[in-house]
Design brief:
Radius of gyration: 24 Å
Number of strands: 0
Number of helices: 10
Helix content: 55-70%
Shape: elongated
């Protein structure tokens, strides 16, 4: 059992917790990073919760940054890639989630002009534009079903996409495109009798 874990058990019993040293703080941070990448803000909060003082938190974050483990830009790219791969969201929603995780506004603005997500594998195809992301989200939502003709049902589908951070114009155009693509190509167009 690590010194920090033994200290944590003592503190639960009401005994005083030993102050963290540099190696123990690094161990706490490494354990926290074991499940997924983290932002500097998340790591800082975790170290403070473990009892590290401000100077030790800064020193530990600097050591982690030197090792490439505390990088907000890399976290933002990873987060956006995960969103594109598993649950596509609009840029506004991804940026809001990044802010919630403590990514600084400057980093988000720096990445705003670029495509945030970069696929891990060169042959992998992730959606690159907002319209492609909206289309993937809509197709996953529909699961092969056609886009309903009912206006109210289309509004519900549109609200589904808006809640995922897509702007209304992208939503309207995506619904129109998917509906047109899913129409039966063998059906003859209706002619006006005149």
């Amino acid at each position: 059992m690590s010194a920090w874990r033994a200290s944590a058990k003592r503190s639960k019993r009401g005994e005083a917790r030993a102050p963290l040293d540099a190696d123990t703080a690094l161990d706490v941070a490494a354990r926290y990073l074991a499940t997924r990448p983290r932002t500097r803000s998340e790591l800082s909060r975790r170290l403070q919760r473990a009892g590290a003082d401000e100077a030790l938190v800064r020193a530990t974050l600097d050591r982690l940054a030197a090792m490439g483990l505390a990088d907000d830009v890399a976290f933002a790219r990873w987060w956006a890639e995960q969103r594109d791969r598993h649950a596509p969201r609009g840029r506004r929603m991804v940026e809001a989630e990044l802010r919630q995780h403590g990514v600084p506004r400057e980093v988000i603005e720096e990445l705003r002009g670029d495509e945030i997500a970069e696929p891990a594998f060169a042959e992998e195809r992730l959606p690159q534009t907002e319209a492609e992301r909206a289309r993937v989200a809509l197709e996953r939502h529909l699961r092969g079903r056609p886009v309903p003709d009912d206006r109210r049902a289309q509004q519900r589908i549109g609200m589904f996409l808006v809640r995922r951070g897509f702007d209304p114009e992208t939503v309207r155009s995506t619904i129109r495109e998917v509906a047109a693509d899913r129409r039966d190509p063998d059906a003859e167009p209706m002619e006006d009798e005149g």
